[in-house]
UniProtKB/TrEMBL annotation:
Descriptive protein name: NUDIX hydrolase
Biased composition (Low complexity): 105-121
Record field: transmembrane: 6-25
Annotated stretches, region: Disordered: 102-132
UniProt keyword Transmembrane helix, yes or no: yes
Claim: Transmembrane is one of the keywords in the record: yes
Ranges of biased composition (kind: Basic and acidic residues): 122-132
Organism (species): Cellulomonas carbonis T26
Keywords assigned by UniProt, alphabetized: Membrane, Transmembrane, Transmembrane helix
Length: 223
């Protein structure tokens, strides 16, 4: 093999390596963007679910104990997401009254308090899981759900809750799949050797209890 042939082969190898690095870096960047977008979508749906839950508690369609517990769990889920009291009251005007019923020892900020910084992942997941469990307890009896749907605004709020909850399930599934794809990509030898991820933290899945309440019909199903 002549010197020119060796040089040509070496050039081809270098070009292939550069192309492989470029493809890997582009794909990794696209996956990180996908994770960010899917997490944002999940956050929006979690906020929507908690807001609807707070509205249900504020309407009085639940029994008094369930109303207080659901309001407390909804307020906590919103608060750990970084929403201050003014934000929450803007979302659900009746939530201020419900917060006073919960009591001063609740985790939610007092009216007028500045917005909290978003909580850590574990605290956020714990709050969302607690909201799921509280709602399941409040809506575990289909006959009670039917009675709620017969109340003014009851059916509308239950449909909104079911729609938001269903979107939470879908958004979390989509996000966790995006995270799994990104994690697999970041474990490849090329990415680890060249540190193509830069300073981006390793994404993590969102693990919350989002089991569906027995008494709540899924979207598109009659009660």
């Amino acid at each position: 093999m002549t010197w020119s042939e060796v040089a040509f082969v070496a050039l081809v190898v270098v070009l292939v390596l550069v192309w492989s690095v470029w493809v890997a870096a582009t794909r990794l960047d696209r996956l990180h963007r996908k994770v960010g977008a899917s997490r944002s979508a999940l956050e929006n749906q979690l906020v929507r679910r908690a807001s609807v839950a707070a509205e249900i508690a504020a309407t009085g369609v639940l029994d008094p104990v369930s109303s207080v517990l659901v309001a407390d769990a909804a307020w906590s889920a919103l608060a750990v997401g970084g929403h201050g009291a003014s934000d929450l009251i803007a979302l659900v005007p009746d939530l201020a009254a419900e917060a006073r019923r919960v009591g001063p020892d609740a985790d939610a900020p007092a009216p007028g308090e500045a917005s909290r910084a978003p909580a850590g992942a574990a605290e956020r997941e714990s709050a969302e899981s607690e909201l799921s469990r509280t709602l399941r307890t409040a809506l575990d009896d289909p006959s009670e759900v039917v009675a709620i749907s017969e109340e003014p605004l009851g059916a509308e709020l239950l449909e909104a809750l079911a729609a938001a909850w269903y979107r939470v399930e879908l958004a979390r599934r989509f996000h966790n799949e995006a995270v799994a794809q990104t994690q697999r990509m970041r474990r490849t030898a090329l990415v680890r050797l060249l540190r193509l991820h830069g300073h981006a933290p390793m994404p993590r899945t969102v693990e919350i209890d989002d089991g569906w309440p027995d008494g709540l019909p899924r979207p598109g199903h009659a009660a």
